[in-house]
Amino acid sequence: MSATTDHDPAGSSPAPGRAAPTGLPGRLSAWLFWEAPLARVAWLRLAVYAFVVLDVLWLHSTGRHHGAADPLWYQPLVVGEVLGVPAATVLLAEVTRWGSVLLALAAMTGRAPRLLGWATALCWIWFQYIAFSYGKVDHDRADFLVALLILPTVGLAHLRDGRRSEAAGFALRAVQLMAIATYFLAAVAKVRFGGWEWVSSATIARAVVRRGTWVSEWMLDYPALLQAFQWGLFTAELASPVVFVLALRWQRRVVGAWYLFHLATYAAITIAFWPHLVMMLAFLPLERAAQLARRRWRRLRGQEPDAAVPEPLVAPGRDG
Amino acid sequence: MATTSGRVDERVDGAARPSTTSRGVLRLGALGRAWRTAVVVVLAVGFGAGSLVGDDHWWPLSPWRMFSTSSSPSGAVRVFVLEVTTPTEPAWREVPINLGVVGLNRAELEGRWPLVQEQPEVLATLADAHARLQPEQERWDGVRLVRRSTPLVGGSPDREATSDQPLAVWTARDGAQVLGS
Question: What is the complex's ipTM, to 2 decimals?
Fold first, then answer.
């Protein structure tokens, strides 16, 4: 199967022996519950749990210091008020942090995916709660909860799994939907909090003043350039859901463009929405990339292709 | 449930009817599809409501408001700065405001300015947190909160015109007081 095979943008083609979905509900259902390679979920879960380890140890580790802050600075979130979550302590922060690490490492083995997956989710979410319940919420992390909570529902999946599954298709679609929703809802927030004049404001100029790098600081002398960037970003965010009706080839190009946007953002103001970058992997044929890498590695070492690995690994489908 | 041998069981997700398989495809039953669809609806309603009427306290359903406010091209960029003294360094010196130093980051401290205005003695807890986080360093005996303003002219910062305004101070010797607003 070619990596650029287009899918049916309105839904999906019927499974062998199944009638084609008719009507909007049927097409929507077929789109939501598409037959995805289980191996793709296994690779995505591997990335998600590896990210959890990196995140709590390095990328977003400082939230644990709230355990050292006086409890008077604690501002419980709604979910904390409802559940009666107490202010952080050093012990609680470290338990949720190291619990996240150990459980995510265990989950990376692929064993007991529901138990270990949801336990990892609980620890990571609690650790985020500790980070965010002192007056500042990082707005890029809510979507990752969906990945942590939904991916375990697929059950067992192996990195070389040759099967497809509707549960896997749903999980991947849910992660994709959530990832793209963050762009669209970010545009909604700009209209709500900044008004339509946001596009002509000095928001990015201020961000560059506060967190700029040599890559971006020269742009402060060209405010029109920064405003043009705001127009482009806002338009892209509003139009982001269109990605779901694009042909697969173009869908992946758009995802690539979003990755480039995030790279440019990091270079300009040293902000990266790390969990979101992992979520966007749900659009990519991860299992095929891994297979390709394995084959190239064997070729580099002068070995024959692995005869044990069937090619194609997954039976032709409509997902590219 | 699938097994490592590649065998495919007949039932997935406790489906009301057995899931069917064809060419290695695991299908969902009606129940499995129903609750998953319900999850999507709940998430859509939750995140939609959070974006339209919620605030940060709704996290994880809070609005995605990073960089969402409009900034006037001719306003000023204001940031909080923390200054401290120690018994051996009695002159005010700036220290970073971050979680590793005071257990809070700058935005959190900026967001709690009303609390500091009401109870400036809370600045003493920053010295306590610093002592817990960096016990090898000398304990602070003075903490001062300062607002630093850099004016924007046509969207560009005029760094020459940057100014500092002390907002509140606490010292172990004289206690706490609010200096500005």
Answer: 0.86
